[in-house]
Structures are given as structure tokens and as C-alpha cells.
Design a protein that fits this description.
Elements: E1 2-12, E2 22-28, H1 41-44, E3 49-52, H2 53-63, E4 67-71, H3 81-90, E5 94-100, E6 113-117, E7 142-147, H4 150-162, E8 168-173, H5 180-190, E9 195-197
Parallel strand pairs: 2-4, 4-5, 5-6, 6-7, 7-8, 8-9
Antiparallel strand pairs: 1-2, 1-3
Helix pairs in contact: 2-3
Length: 208
């Protein structure tokens, strides 16, 4: 089976609980969402290059490293994404999946660490988020709430109250729309103690 790939590269993981670790990124092309502040529109609209999954995995082995993230665009929009995730797990990699909350997670292999971006009202795509996905997440997974304004923050608090679970919870300011210090003050004043503030590291340091 093949998937449409926008790029494959090695860098420092900028987000999630794996932040700061060397990571190989497989960025798949295309996304059915159109978030107002999307930071990868180039991948969202790209056709990408069709690559065989076995060739991708062999390339990742050659590159070295033990953490691999499949991202996008929206990786789960492609039929072959599940097979790619499974093939990477079978090779013994620590596999991360960065996905929106708009597509079902029920077929994702259990050993994959899911990083689900749950979009708020400012994205324009909040109505497409699937709250049913929260029942699938466990302590190895996490939900990242991109926060661009106060409405996004209030929405994140509501979601955490209604769909709380063992998964980790991250609030990340959408740059440059919201200052991280403002979000920090909101979390200290009203956020649950389980909500973690995180700034996207790859936007702070100069890495590939």
C-alpha cells in the first residue's frame, strides 16, 4: 500500500510529552480541515508524492533514531495511514500520531501514542471535532488544545470537565494570536491542575 507523503525529515520534537527529543517526522499530504490559523497550509493543500509503505519504513530505519511521528496535514485522512503506523510499530519504533479530533481513532494501533489536536471555536472547525474519540484515549495519549483567545480557553475547560480521562492535557498558545504569558495566567487562575502549558519549541529554536 502507498501513502501520499509531503516530506520526511529528522528534527527536535517541538510538542507533546516527547518535546525536546530527536524525532523523525513523516508528514503526510492533504487535510480535509481548513483551520483559520493552520500552521502547515503547504501540506494541507499539497498532492504529495506516493510512496510505498515498506520503502518509507526502510528509509526511517536508515535514518536512525527511535521516535517517529506521523503527522500532516491530517494523516488519518489517508487510507494507508493505519498500515503505516502498524508497520512502524512492528519495527520497534516509539510511534507518535499527531491528528485532529475530526476523524475516528478506533483503528489506530494501541501501542501508538496519540496526540489529538482538539480545535476550539477560533479555528472555524470546532463543530467537526468528535468527542467520541475521548473514550479511546488512555494514559499513553494526550489532547492538545490550541488556544487563540479566551473562547478557546473556555471551550477547553468545558471539554476537560465533560470528557476527563487518563490522557494528558496540554494547552498551547496559537502564535502570534495569543501571548503565552496570558495563557499562563488563565491556567493559574482557572485551569485544572492537570492542564499543562506548552510552547511550540520548534518555533523558538532554529531547527530543520
Amino acid at each position: 500500500m502507498k501513502v501520499r507523503v509531503y516530506e520526511i525529515f529528522k528534527s527536535i520534537q517541538g510538542e507533546s510529552s516527547f518535546q525536546g527529543y530527536p524525532c523523525i517526522f513523516i508528514r503526510l499530504a492533504g487535510c480535509p480541515l481548513n483551520c483559520r490559523w493552520c500552521d502547515t497550509p503547504h501540506a494541507r493543500n499539497a498532492e504529495g508524492k506516493e510512496l510505498d509503505i515498506l520503502d518509507i519504513v526502510n528509509n526511517i530505519v536508515f535514518m536512525g533514531g527511535n521516535i517517529v511521528e506521523v503527522t500532516g496535514g491530517e494523516p488519518l485522512a489517508q487510507e494507508g495511514a493505519i498500515e503505516l503506523l502498524s508497520a512502524l510499530c512492528e519495527k520497534g519504533f516509539t510511534v507518535l500520531l499527531e491528528t485532529s479530533g475530526a476523524l475516528p481513532l478506533d483503528k489506530v494501533p494501541h501501542s501508538v501514542h496519540i496526540i489529538m489536536d482538539f480545535k476550539g471555536p477560533s479555528s472555524g472547525e470546532d463543530a467537526r471535532m468528535l468527542t467520541s474519540n475521548f473514550a479511546i484515549l488512555d494514559e499513553n495519549d494526550e489532547v492538545k488544545f490550541p488556544i487563540a483567545d479566551r473562547d478557546d480557553f473556555e471551550n477547553a475547560l468545558r471539554i476537560i470537565r465533560e470528557y476527563d480521562g487518563p490522557f494528558r492535557k496540554i494547552a498551547s498558545p496559537v502564535s502570534p494570536l495569543l501571548d503565552a504569558g496570558v495563557l499562563a495566567r488563565w491556567i493559574l487562575a482557572e485551569g485544572p491542575p492537570t492542564l499543562r502549558l506548552q510552547i511550540q519549541l520548534h518555533k523558538v529554536i532554529d531547527v530543520p
